[in-house]
Design a protein that fits this description.
two-stranded antiparallel sheet, single chain, 8 helices
């Protein structure tokens, strides 16, 4: 190989070694951009939910992953309840079996002393075996009648209690409807705002008056509501600066108050009995007098206008 060829080859290899890191960095940047664009495209494109087939009672049904997780959670909770019920059932059956074998031991486990167990057993045995043997035939019949009478009275008291509860429920429902009707009529006639808060206040004062034995008429209750609202409002804004009051009321309420005030003033200055269809005299605006002659002319014209 000639000396020129060796120099050219060395130069080419040097340039390649110099450009290789930059080229590799550009390739890596391109790969990162392509990966990012692919991920963004995957995020924008909605993916179809993946379904799983499950056999339920012989029928195949399709569920998503979220639905399967929800069903698994419900199934786990149901299994825990079934297991708890099974444990309670087993515990009950074990106690019944132990009671049949040695009920004294079961009573002791429940906290009764031997003296208490003996006393109750003697009482039970005396009432069910000794007393009936000592009674005559007439006394047995009397006791049986008393037992039946007691049972009848207890059943009758139970039925009366149930009937009383049902009757109270009916009365309460009727009273609630009647009170609701009274509240609605009161809001319509009194000018109070027809809101739930107003209904709550009326109901409060009705209940408050009844607690003190006063069946107040609706006019009194309405006045109580108004007085309470007025007192509450005055307590809040009595000593407050006007800026705070306007900010508290807001633009809508402030304009509403201004419009009402203007309408009241217009109504106050309107003359009753004036036929608005007839033309009315309009006062001509005159220039203010500047000299004494102008003053005389002004008063003369004013007298002529009034006459």
């Amino acid at each position: 190989m000639s000396e020129g060829t060796q120099v050219a080859s060395a130069t080419t290899m040097g340039n390649t070694a110099t450009e290789t890191p930059a080229v590799q960095q550009n390739q890596q940047n391109l790969q990162v951009e392509e990966t990012s664009q692919t991920q963004d495209h995957a995020k924008k494109v909605p993916q179809e939910p993946e379904y799983y087939e499950l056999k339920v009672n012989g029928a195949v049904k399709r569920y998503t992953k979220e639905q399967l997780l929800a069903k698994a959670s419900l199934g786990e909770a149901a299994n825990e309840r079934f297991e708890q019920a099974a444990r309670l059932r087993q515990q009950y059956e074990a106690e019944q079996k132990e009671m049949a074998q040695d009920f004294i031991k079961v009573l002791e486990k429940r906290g009764l002393s031997k003296e208490q167990i003996r006393t109750r057993m003697e009482q039970w045995y005396h009432e069910n075996f000794i007393e009936p043997e000592m009674l005559t035939e007439e006394q047995r019949k009397t006791r049986e009648l008393e037992r039946r009478l007691k049972q009848y009275e207890e059943e009758k008291a139970r039925q009366e209690q149930e009937f009383k509860l049902k009757e109270e429920q009916v009365v309460q429902q009727h009273a609630a409807k009647e009170v609701q009707t009274q509240i609605i009529q009161a809001m319509e006639k009194s000018g109070l705002p027809k809101t739930r808060e107003t209904a709550r206040k009326i109901a409060y004062w009705m209940r408050h008056n009844l607690q003190y034995g006063f069946d107040a008429p609706m006019e009194v209750i309405i006045q109580q509501v108004k007085d309470s609202d007025r007192e509450t409002l005055q307590t809040q804004i009595k000593d407050a600066p006007i800026e705070y009051i306007l900010e508290l009321f807001g633009d809508d309420l402030t304009n509403k108050l201004r419009q009402y005030d203007v309408a009241k003033h217009q109504q106050k200055f309107q003359q009753p009995g004036v036929d608005k269809s007839q033309p009315t005299k309009t006062r001509v605006k005159r220039d203010e007098p500047k000299t004494m002659r102008d003053v005389d002319r002004y008063f003369a014209e004013l007298r002529r206008t009034k006459s």
